Amino acid sequence: MNESNKRERRGRPAKLTNQQILDAAVTIGLPNLTLGGVAKALGVSLAALYKYFKDRDELAEFVANTIIVDYPLSPDGTGDWFHWAHTFAYSQRSIYERFPGLAQVAVQRTINAAIPRLEQSVRLALKSGFDEKTAWWATRAIQEFVFSWYHRVEIREALTGRTGKSCQMSLRRVVREFPPGEAPLMRSISTKRMEESEDERFEFNLRALLAGIAAMRTANPIPMPVEKGVAGLRKSRARLANK
Fold first, then answer.
1. So what's the pLDDT on residue 73?
2. Using one digit for the tens of pLDDT, what is the confidence trace for 53-86?
3. How far is CA 186 from the centre of its chain?
4. How confident is the model at residue 21 (pLDDT cuts 50, 70, 90)?
5. How far apart are CA 205 and CA 142, in angstroms?
6. Distance between CA atoms of 30 and 19, rounded to whole angstroms?
7. Which helix (H) or strand (E) holds 184?
8. What is the CA radius of gyration of the chain?
9. I need a surface site. Which of 123, 162, 169, 214 has the fewest CB within 10 A?
10. How far apart, in Å, are the Cα atoms of 118 and each of 70, 82, 130, 146, 187?
11. SS3 track for 186-197
12. By C-alpha distance, which of 102, 99, 120 is closest to 111?
């Protein structure tokens, strides 16, 4: 092989594998993910990485898809949606805890790997007495609960990292600013609940959500001003739009 051919071969960019890209991205972490950072970690040019992804969002979607698809679907178990949804919520939470920033990506974009999980949830909900619309809404309620829960955790952890103060410490400080005798219940709560368990709160909120969904599924659900509330919201929007 002559020298010109050797130089030409040396100049060709190496072909990247999905695993190489994923490993570099996970090492960097989704919150700090950039095309430039991944390119540097892989030892290739930014232009080389643009051949695989058009922008940072597409790269983040690839990472999220690859992470989620590696987690097995929760088994149907008894076939009861409520038992399955409880297990599913914890499974999703564990993924978000292991991969910070994943919850935010999942909120912003529809992840292909999530579709089989949504399909499974709707199928089990239909078998558990839901109609198609409420099966989908129940599925979204659980999904969005876990999304928002862990995204809130990430925001609060970042704030604590910057300020050195937790949300509970902030609550206690604000309550103490009230004159003595005012907000006595909040004063007691903020004093006693400084070491509040996130796990206990997650379980309580999840069970409350599931109980509410169960009540709405029945033939005679608990009376709630849902329709009136929705109608009132629509009227308020209309009034604002006409101003």
1. 78
2. 999 999 999 999 998 888 877 788 778 999 999 9
3. 30
4. very high
5. 11
6. 16
7. helix 184-192
8. 24
9. 162
10. 16, 14, 15, 14, 42
11. HHHHHHHCCCCC
12. 102
The amino acid present at 210, given as its one-letter code, is L
User: Cα(53)–Cα(51) distance, rounded to whole angstroms?
Assistant: 6
**Can you tell me the distance from the alpha carbon of 42 to that of 14, in angstroms, rounded to the nearest whole number?**
10
Whether residue 224 is predicted with pLDDT greater than 70 in this model: the reply is: no
pLDDT at 15: 83
Apex 155 CA angle, 198 and 164, nearest 5: 85
- CB-CB contact of 175 with 190 (8 Å): yes
List Cβ neighbours of 104 (8 Å cut-off, separation of 6 or more).
30, 31, 151, 154
Structure tokens at 146: 């876990």
Q: Rounded to an integer, what distance in angstroms lies between the CA atom of residue 80 and that of residue 209?
A: 16
Match 């490993």 to its residue by tokens.
23
| Nearest-angstrom CA–CA distance, 218 and 125 | 13
Closest CA to 102 of 135, 147, 46: 147
What the block records as the tokens of 104 is: 């935010």
Mean pLDDT of 150-159: 81
Residues 6+ apart with CB under 8 A from 169: 194
Q: State how far the Cα of 119 lies from the Cα of 92, in Å rounded to an integer.
A: 15
Which pLDDT belongs to residue 78? 78
pLDDT for residue 222 is more than 60: no
Residue type, 194: M
Distance CA 204, CA 138 (A): 17
| Nearest by Cα to 212 from 150, 138, 148 | 138
pTM of the model: 0.75
Length of the chain: 243
Distance CA 129, CA 80 (A): 10
Task: Say which residue the tokens 């051949």 belong to.
Answer: 51
Residue 136 has pLDDT above 90, yes or no: yes
